[in-house]
């Protein structure tokens, strides 16, 4: 049963270039697609979506593009709030969100607060996020807060991540065709199934999501263990 899908929403710029549009127009089209995919996920019974919206490395992009992305973020948090409330969607963020411009951060915090008691689909948006940064931030938090010198377990370490209660993704989808995880959820993706599509994010819709889930359903998740054969033996998978 698939409950949590993580998505690297890639290809906005290439989608725009192919149509003679600006990169900012590609990001606008991509932002609009979030609600389309969220509605499809909710209809399919998915409990959580984690969307890679803006990485720690994305701050290196040209200033006009970053400014446009931050403006889109504010508009998304504000304009989508009524629909999130109507659809019982909870919004959360992961990443170094203190780095975001004040107006964008305040719009996000308002949406997060107003949707915190919704218990339908949860959307986690990764903003100013990097998997390495999350692990480093967790280690620094441990050094500051942890009193015990006993060996740490993986379960305890999880408590220092950005969202300790976020379940690990079952499936990670990357749009745009690139075969890399781009510093996304390095801890949480340990046993996620990976699905890459050539479709750019602005064109990725309900049918594409369904195909990804069907591909997932056709796989056997092994988690490093052994699968029993019918004759009673075990086969290493």
How many β-strands, per DSSP?
8
Structural class: alpha/beta
Mean pLDDT equals 94
N-to-C CA distance:
20 Å
Give the biggest beta sheet: 6 strands, parallel
Please name the defining characteristics of this protein:
single chain, 237 residues, alpha/beta, 6-stranded parallel sheet, two-stranded antiparallel ribbon, 8 helices, 8 strands, 41% helix, 17% strand, globular, disordered C terminus
Account of the 3D structure:
With 237 residues, this protein is an alpha/beta fold. It is 41% helix and 17% strand. The chain has helices spanning 12-18, 23-43, 63-79, 81-86, 102-115, 131-145, 154-158, 206-217, and strands at residues 4-8, 48-55, 90-94, 122-129, 171-174, 193-196, 226-228, 234-236. A six-stranded parallel β-sheet has the order 3-4-2-1-5-6, sandwiched between helices. Helix 5 (102-115) links the parallel strand 3 and strand 4 (122-129). Helix 3 (63-79) packs parallel to helix 5 (102-115). The longest helix has 21 residues, at 23-43. The radius of gyration is 19 Å and the shape is globular. Residues 229-237 have low confidence and may be disordered.
Question: What does this entry show, briefly?
Answer:
By secondary structure, the protein is an alpha/beta fold. Helices cover 41% and strands 17% of the residues. Helix 2 runs parallel beside helix 3 (63-79).
């Amino acid at each position: 049963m698939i409950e949590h899908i993580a998505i690297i929403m890639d290809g906005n710029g290439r989608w725009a270039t192919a149509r003679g549009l600006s990169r900012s127009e590609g990001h606008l089209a991509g932002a609009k697609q979030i609600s389309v995919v969220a509605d499809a996920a909710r209809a399919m019974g998915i409990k959580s979506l984690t969307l890679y919206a803006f990485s720690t490395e994305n701050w290196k992009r040209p200033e006009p593009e970053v400014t446009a992305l931050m403006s889109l973020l504010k508009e998304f948090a504000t304009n989508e709030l009524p629909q999130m409330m109507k659809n019982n969607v909870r919004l959360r963020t992961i990443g170094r969100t203190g780095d975001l411009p004040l107006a964008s951060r305040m719009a996000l915090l308002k949406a997060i607060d107003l949707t915190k008691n919704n218990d339908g689909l949860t959307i986690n948006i990764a903003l100013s996020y990097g998997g390495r940064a999350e692990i480093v931030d967790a280690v620094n938090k441990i050094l500051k807060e942890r009193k015990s010198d006993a060996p740490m377990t993986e379960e305890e370490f999880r408590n220092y991540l950005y969202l300790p209660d976020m379940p690990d993704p079952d499936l990670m989808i990357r749009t745009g065709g690139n075969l890399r995880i781009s510093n996304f959820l390095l801890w949480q993706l340990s046993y996620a199934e990976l699905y890459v599509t050539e479709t750019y994010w602005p064109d990725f819709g309900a049918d594409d999501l369904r195909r990804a889930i069907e591909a997932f359903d056709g796989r056997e998740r092994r988690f490093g263990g052994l699968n029993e054969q019918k004759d009673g033996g075990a086969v290493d998978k």
